[in-house]
Amino acid sequence: MPDMYESIPYKADGAKGLGGKPVNSKPVLKTLTRGGTPAYDIADTAEGYAEAKLSLKSPLDKNEKNLENGKKMYTIYCISCHGKKGDGNGYLSTSEKFLGIPNYKDRDITEGSVYHILMHGINLMGSHSSQLTYNERWQIIQYVEVLRADLLK
């Protein structure tokens, strides 16, 4: 029974579907593919950064649950460089592994600019788009906004 050992791969959502019949390749408006997230098609350019900075807004409610998970994700992915307070004094900065990590207080950032950087990276910071889910990115941004507000006091 070779079919049991070497299965025939099918792509259920392919252009011709399982039965070989053409299928509508456009998703229904305001829906996502299974396991999908909204497409991020803002270019990794200075113009793209400026566009994201002005136009992107978080779709998540600002609440304790999102903020709590944002802090958790920040602690895992961001704290080693950006520090507990967002002042750029994380372990990798203080041990001089990376220099010039920005202080959130000194940057003109918005939800959109931080999201763009999480997606594409900037300077020494690489993209975190593959490590974080769509919601986790926005949750981190909520937490970064809290840290920035504390630094600006």
UniProtKB/TrEMBL annotation:
One of its GO terms (molecular function) is electron transfer activity. Residues 65-148 form the Cytochrome c domain. It comes from Polaribacter irgensii 23-P. PROSITE patterns: CYTC. Gene3D superfamilies: Cytochrome c-like domain. Keywords: Heme, Iron, Metal-binding. It comes from the Bacteria. InterPro entries: Cyt_c-like_dom, Cyt_c-like_dom_sf. This is Cytochrome c domain-containing protein. The lineage of its organism: Bacteria, Pseudomonadati, Bacteroidota, Flavobacteriia, Flavobacteriales. It holds the Pfam family Cytochrome_CBB3.
